[in-house]
Amino acid sequence: MKTRTVLQCTCKLVAPLAFGFCMTATPAYANMGSNVVTLIEMGDLHGTLVPHAAELSNSDGDLYYASEAGGLAKLKKVVDDIRAENPDNLLLSCGDLTHGSAEALFTVGDAMIKAMNAFGIDVFTPGNWDFGYGPAVFRNRFTSFGPKPNIPPWTAVMAGYVDCVDNDVGGTCSESKGIIKADFPAVAINLYNTPPLPESIQGTRVLDAYRIFERGGIRIAVIGITASIVPQQADVFNIGLRFTQGVEELPEILAEVKDKGADLIVVQSELGMSQNIEIARNFEDIDVMYSAHTHEITQGALLADKDAVTRTTPGGPLSGAEKSRLAQGAAIVVETNRDMYVGQLDVQVANDKVIDFEWTAHAVDDLVTPDEDMAELVAELEEDFVAGEDGMVKPHVFLPGAFCNPGCGDITGLSLPDQRGHYLTEDLNKIVGRTDTLLLRHHVLEDTLNNWLADAIRIETDAVTTGGVDISMSNGFRFGNAVLPDTDITLRDLYTWFPVGPAVNVGEFAGQTIVASLEEILSAVFNRNPFLQRGGWYLGLANMTQQIDLDHRPFSSSSGRIVSTSIGGAPLDTSKRYVFASCYAHGDAIDKVCRTGGGSDHMFFELADATDYTSTISVVPPVNPPAPFPPGGPVKRVAPYRFVHPVHLLRRHLDSIGTVTEATYSVGRVTTVDSRKQVDGAYQEIPAPVPEPDPSFVQPPQGAGPLFFSGKIGD
Question: If we measure between CA atoms, which residue out of 541, 450, 544 comes closest to residue 497?
Fold first, then answer.
């Protein structure tokens, strides 16, 4: 595969090229007639300010590399050019916006919001990671009514890194309790206030349920459904918040917007593709389901109704049968993938019905010319994260809860003993290693990147742990930039793979506990009931191999999907205790490592100098007594002030190996088999399930395993 340098498309090109999709002399929807509204969709941007390498796909599904994809300046150019085609447009954004990069992590999302305020977003629905800085930040940033909690001192330090002043690109910059506010509305029908908030507002919505717009005489209702999985993440994400699936609320809200004269009903949902398809199939009043969270790319829009879910031809006109299904209530389901695509959905409406549409997923690739004003704003935001003329970088610190309570003075100083938290003191563009293979998280079961991440954590913790470390795992995160083969790895790349602030800890776990946890994760990824699926893909495994059967399991007689597990080349012993090192989310129960609970004898890793990842690492017990945060709250600080962060270990491992190689970290640790029979004593290997109805998807929306687990028998 090569970096694409030539635009390949069938239409006649217009010079000069303004961006990486074919421009024509007339708007793309001109053949559709009147009453056409354009929905512009960008989702799951994950805090990405600057261009990065990417693996992209053409409309025909062919993959190609881009060395400078995405970034807000290119994204703004594509959005504005689509806007120019049709003034009757809406700019929609759904999914994780304020998390996913070092710039977002060390400013609690303020750097991203300051830039996004210049986009002119019409309506936004938050994703699970937008709650990742705690409810106080979320409420002050996104809510237009209700309580605005005071910002804890540790959060105030990080929020202070970005100045709030208006810029030349557009939009405004204003603050609430020191947090930069979004100047665009946020909607969600499934997010409620709950204790410890006052009884008078318990059970009320945190955000508006929807917004109604009028474009070209068409009334458009946009309903939001935020991620429902937040309570399954760190406890600190959801204090005072209650989440539902949104399904029970939809009938009332759909009836309400219809009563208000909505001609076109759009639901933008962060539940993920599998759940969104199921919702679209069961609510005929939904015209468009804009899906987010799963980082899929629909090159051909899906048509979903009770009878079927089918993919339309990418770039082609609708057939007569497809138009008939639209007229009978089929919903259009589309999704874009991070900042690498902008969706353009041109919808023709007549008599309160969608009668035609055209969908294009525009790749934001090397051929896109950045918007100059946005590029200038991004450069200003990047100044503190890259080396200046003196070669120095402004130090930043990430402070988890209780690391500055009730007050810790000038914690931005770099001298001991005041160091606390995770420090950034180097240029994000600093080269820290190299790879001879593609590093990319975009496989549901296993990829080279996650294998390397898990190995690096195990090897580096093993070197300082008495008795050694048996296993490690890397979370099945969906976010993270690609690094192309035979290119350098930068510090910025490492933070896109771990843009969270966990500590690293180690504990002992029974083999039975490990297997049960992995079964639970597999079930969350491949459950036949879409509403029992949850975020993330499968984990990266270090010093472990597995055989799993996704097609024919689980049954009560065959236990779970895991057929066999080996650790260190020997079969896993369910009664044995294994030493397990991985990341620890601040605020989690002390017995957790990665996504596995129920361990014992937990210890943490601590740097001698928090500003120097090469300094001596010690193994230390949890903080005792634990310090609660917020005061009297449900979670406590247990990690040391100078905790080791996963990026520290990745740096140390790259210093040791130099280059990440395919030969060392290639896939093959997780294989799919047919467990119903053995040939010469071995299970027959079979391919993993193919996603329906679009085989280009990463995760099968239909789940995997016996059909009856979906509650259905037969076809």
Answer: 450
**Region of 662 on the Ramachandran plot (φ > 0 left; ψ -120 to 50 alpha; else beta):** alpha
Distance of CA 419 to the CA centre of its chain: 30
* 483 strand-pairing partners: 439
Q: Which domain holds residue 516?
A: 424-671
DSSP 198-245: -GGGTTSBSSBSEEEEEETTEEEEEEEE--S-GGGS-GGG-TTEEE--
pLDDT reported for residue 627: 61
- Provide the β-strand partners of residue 545: 566
How many structural domains is the chain composed of? 2
How many Cβ atoms from other residues are within 10 Å of residue 392's Cβ? 11
Tell whether 107 is covered by a domain: yes
Tell me the per-residue pLDDT of 289-318, one tens digit each, with 9 for 90 and over.
999 999 999 999 999 999 999 999 998 899
Using CA atoms, how far residue 291 sits from 127, 160, 283, 302, in Å, is 11, 34, 15, 11
**Which pLDDT value is given to residue 18?**
36
Structure-token pair, residue 419: 């160091």
* CA trace torsion 465, 469, 474, 475 (10° rounding): -80
Q: Which of 372, 402, 437 lies at the terminal end of a domain, its last residue?
A: 372
Mean pLDDT (the chain, rounded): 90
Asked if 366 and 439 sit in the same domain, the reply is no
Distance in angstroms (rounded) separating the CA atoms of residues 541 and 514: 12
pLDDT higher at 33 or 172:
172
pLDDT band, residue 29 (cuts 50/70/90): low
Q: What three-state secondary structure class fits 154?
A: helix
Same domain, 493 and 578: yes
The mean pLDDT of 447-466, rounded to a whole number, is 97
